[in-house]
Amino acid sequence: MKKIVSLTLCLALLFCLGSFSGCVGSADFAEGDAVVLSKVSKAEAAQVLYGTYNGKTVTVRSPRFTGIPVASVYSYKEAYCFMNGTVIFNAALADGAHLFQVNKDGKVLDRDYELSGDRIPADIVALNSITCPVPGGNVRGENAVVVQTGEPGAYSQHLCNLQGEKLSGEYDSIGYFYNGIALVTKDGKVGLIDDAGGVVLEPCIAYDSVSYPPKEKMYAPVFMHEDAFVLPIGGEFAIFTVLR
């Protein structure tokens, strides 16, 4: 497969989370397949979930499965941001490596997608260019900073504002904010919080335990964009959409 240098560099930027060494996606990963340590039942994920944001109901639609196996997707390229309604997977199947362009319904639009330019949303590029005023923090939203504490193997993350005031409880990981909402993980489950630290949806969506050799980093979803996010479930990637 042709090397796509610009894509690799951009993904390294997106997935490098500063000092957050417990998060998947660090630029020091070698190319390699994922290892699925344990799977959750697809039936467990097949439900519509409801939360509240800004006094209105938020609906997390039941997942749409892509058919793309988790173990085939290369290292830190396992989950891209949505852009213009689609997401890209770089998968090595029995007949070779392919770039798959998939829409929010899980439908493969293009099996050998030709990348044209960078697929990094402008708002995330802007966040990565901000110097964080909070020591040890990473800017994840307009007024949202994620700070990691703890020891290797027992890290936790919490949200604070630009003044360093703590806004949320502790989570295993907190992602980037999209229109005021971000993914959080706790004990292998995904939920949603707002940029004031309020719980929109308690972590309740279980996802597969996935490791990435050689660093043995564990998968942790950090990107929700265009109100859509990707999780490994039942051995394949599933797409969730958020309706507001």
Please describe what this structure looks like:
The protein has about 240 residues and is mostly beta strands. It has one domain (about 5-244). It has 3 helices and 18 strands. Strands 2, 3, 4, 17 and 18 form a 5-stranded antiparallel beta sheet that branches. It has a 4-stranded antiparallel beta sheet with strand order 11-12-13-14, with no helix packed on it. The longest helix has 11 residues, at about 5-15. The radius of gyration is 17 Å and the shape is globular.
What secondary-structure arrangement, pairings included, does this model have?
Layout: H1 5-15, E1 35-38, H2 42-45, E2 49-53, E3 56-60, E4 64-69, E5 86-93, E6 96-103, E7 108-110, H3 122-128, E8 137-141, E9 144-149, E10 156-160, E11 173-174, E12 181-186, E13 189-194, E14 199-206, E15 209-212, E16 217-218, E17 228-233, E18 236-243
Antiparallel strand pairs: 1-15, 2-3, 3-18, 4-18, 5-6, 6-7, 8-9, 9-10, 11-12, 12-13, 13-14, 15-16, 17-18
**Span between termini:** 40 Å
Percent range for helical residues? Answer: under 10%
Q: Which regions contain 5 or more consecutive residues with pLDDT less than 50? A: 1-31
Strand content: 35-45%
Q: Major sheet, described briefly? A: 5 strands, antiparallel
Cα shape:
globular
Brief digest:
This protein has 244 residues and is mainly β. It has helices spanning 5-15, 42-45, 122-128, and strands spanning 35-38, 49-53, 56-60, 64-69, 86-93, 96-103, 108-110, 137-141, 144-149, 156-160, 173-174, 181-186, 189-194, 199-206, 209-212, 217-218, 228-233, 236-243.
